[in-house]
Amino acid sequence: MAATITFPIDTPTGPQPARVVYERRGTGRPLVLLHGIGHHWQAWEPVLDILAVEREVTAVDLPGFGESPALPDGVGYDLDDMAPVLAALFEALDLDRPDVAGNSLGGLLALELGRRKLVRSVTALAPARFWNEAERRYAFGVLTAMRVAARAIPLPLVGRIARTAAGRAALTGTIYARPGRRSAQAVVAEARAMREATGFEATLATGRGVVFADDVPDVPVTIGWGTRDRVLLPRQGVRAKRAIPAARLVRLPGCGHVSMNDDPALVARVILDGSR
């Protein structure tokens, strides 16, 4: 069962409490998992038990997503605000420079944590902000459409549609190359997470006109990209490699944007190899 932790963060009006929900499994060197925009920690469920054989794994509901409430007033969702929040979370969880893996938004956050040398290694799966402007507009359009659909379709109807493989493909085929692998229950939970994400609009807005152009020196970085990613196109991985020359760029054959679902064994191996 997921746990909740409350910890102080700095705000313009002084320290305020932040609350984060997380799931922890396994023993060993600590590994933190960060999900994408509109998702929740359960995005990592396909790989959690595989990783937990070797590592102490903490999968986080980012503030404003999943069961974690929004950040306090005055604290934004850009990298300059989120990196200190995550650093404070690590301290509260007694995690001293953990390894970190992230998907999409989580991959971007993982790279920023690596740039600030707050983590030991980074595995970024289809990280955001390696787009050009046309690709950004396209990705924002896809994500906004998913948000609108999640808020428009009643959850009982989502449950009925998700009972069949074809229904699950219609609901989640944008982010998964193999949507039939998701259970109906997981699809309904994802729709709820997307519709109730209090941090969605503020987080999306931080990406307008912004790319990640910084190197991440002195920290091992692995960048993985699904060959069937329909949200952040695979060619963006080449730009990520240019920005971070020492990074290991790994193709994830047959995987979509949320690759953990599509090939759990491969993704788990990429994460473990990148955090030795």
TrEMBL record:
Example of a GO MF term: hydrolase activity
Residues covered by the AB hydrolase-1 domain: 31-269
Family matches, as Pfam families: Abhydrolase_6 (PF12697)
Keywords: Hydrolase
Gene3D superfamilies attached to this UniProt entry: alpha/beta hydrolase
Keyword Repeat: no
SUPFAM superfamilies: alpha/beta-Hydrolases (SSF53474)
Protein name: Alpha/beta fold hydrolase
